[in-house]
Amino acid sequence: MIHGLLHGIRRCLLRVTQGFAARRRPGARRKRGGFMGRAGIDLFIEDGAYTTLSSAVVILVVLTLLFSSTAAIWSMSRAGDTQVAADSGALAGANVVSSYHTAATVVDASILSLGLAGFATIGTGLVAILIPGAEVVGSDIIDTGTQIIKTRNKFAKSAAKGLQKIETALPYLVATRAMQAVSAQDTDGVTYTGTALAVPRTSESDFVALGGSEISTDAIKDASEDLERAAEELQKASEETAKVKERAWLADCGGSDKGSVGSCSCMWERAKSLSDLSGAQNPHYSSSVTWEPQVALDRAKDYYHWRLTNEKPQGPSVEMKAESAARKAFYTYASAEVDRAYITENGDRVSSYIPLLPRNSDEVRATELYTDAVWPTSVNDDKTYLHYGTSCPNYKKGTPSGFASVADYDGQDKCSKCHFGVSSLGAVAAPSTSIENGFEYHFDKFKDALEDYVDCRNKELELERQTEDEADRAGNAFDTAIKELSGERPRIAPPGRNGVVAFAASGAVSSPDELNSSFNTAVELGDRGAISAAVLAPDDATAQNNVLSRFFSTLEERSGGVAGVLDGVMDVWGRLLVGYGDIQGAADELMGELIGGLGGGSGALGSIASWLGGTVSSSVAALGLEPCDLRLRKPVLTDSANVIKSPGSDIAGISKTQDTLRKIPLGVTDPKALCEALEYHVERTISGAVFTLAEIPLPGGGSIPLTVDVATLAGAFGGGS
């Protein structure tokens, strides 16, 4: 630079000399005057032109000004370089705090999302226990979630210790990085010494929420084992109930509704063949899953009502009229009995009453058909006989003798015409209950199956209540454990959170020989110093520009693709981790997808599974986690007074900064010694080339270390595999 300046001066002088020479006209005569004239103006001007003397004076003045200005520029440049060195130190020191803030945020994101991933997995496993087909892997899913929580506990504990340790050394790291940045400004034989002081030097971070008491899943594990046993017993009971229900369904309408009449044997087919019931009165169900026992009972009621209403003799003979009378009596009794039948389930217990319709004479004797005095009698030849009705020829011949029951004449002689008696009533249902073509045959099978169904269903309901209790206990254990995640997030307030103040100084220096000449004296600059300050300013976060994206992009560069591994290995955890900015929304969405992905169960277990799924999802939603601040903190220069006067600052006041500058020992290369010279005590230093802040465990195996490169502090914080 000096050589170029001198070359420019020579060219300027040459132009000036040539210009003055051209202005002097050849042969011009000088005016003569007195001594005063020649000694005055004439020495510098003649005939409107400048004299040689005037030109020489101008040249001397120009040279003096040029060399003086050059020396001044050089002096100001050296002073400005000192300020540049201080600015570099301030930005470098603040960048260490920024990098730490990024690392601490990544650690918090990893721990919180890892805990949520564990609970999401456990909650899914609890629900899976109750889903037929998925129950075989439910316990394995819970074991996986439990292992994730244990990993989270271990990681949180070590990370909290690592963060606390690095925070105590942060003032030292800030000073070291700033000292390196200041020293890097050395140029043209000028050496700079300086460092940066973190303001304040003490931490107010709170890592209790980060590495506090471990989250225990023992209660969840115990409850899940009891739930699994209860669910297994309930599943067996439900399967047994389903089998018995299918038997009852087969008796009622187990045939295909597309076949012709007679293609199947069941109550539906017999009613369709023997009556004129409508489709609504005689419905068909193709599966026992959609069918309920009440369908068969309603069918029987409508069938017997129809048979009673439409009963008539099948011919004019006395025998046919007597058979019709017996059938009408049977249908009257059956209709009344079936109308009193019921099947009820109040949620706690099933009860039913299905009458036993008589299938022979002996069973008739046990019913009101045997004892009701509704049959006419007459006296013929001094002997009383029982008749089917007053239209019996023998009744008409004899003397009416009132009404009696078949029991009154059981074992006595029968009317020679109608032969009516207890056997007549027993013969009505006997054929239809002993062969498949009879409605009563299938109704009797339905009755037997229904009695077994009631027993099985009541056992199932009892086990259902037990399973509900176990599910409730498991849900409560889950809710209690996951609340450990709902506490306040760790407060990240490290040393230097209000900024850093940098000091830079350089020793005495003389101007180079190229600037020294007879036109000026050599410039001697004494010790110089400068102060600067930097603070962290948040940068608007975007999907590509935030704490996590910056961390993982750096991680991929350092590890050769570990970030790509995260996409395939972490799954649940990975989704929560990248959704850390809105962690609550990410957790709610993920729980809905995981539980929904299990598929819906059916029956009692399906109902309990649905309830438990809602319970664990509600527990996650109730955490109420606030959106996390993922904005990057970038160092920016600021007025040093803003930092020096900030809360917690223990740097000397602004009026004493000059005294502080003078305390910098030039040439010192030990950051700690340099800080002590500035009356700034550094608590801890970190030895060794690399310090591991924490290791982020991968559920699929391996880990990602968060390290500090103490040797060079290049980039301060980073990740590696």
UniProtKB/TrEMBL annotation:
The chain crosses the membrane at residues 53-74, 111-131. It comes from Collinsella aerofaciens. The lineage of its organism: Bacteria, Bacillati, Actinomycetota, Coriobacteriia, Coriobacteriales. Keywords: Coiled coil, Membrane, Transmembrane, Transmembrane helix. This is Uncharacterized protein. Residues 217-247 form a coiled coil. The keyword Membrane applies.
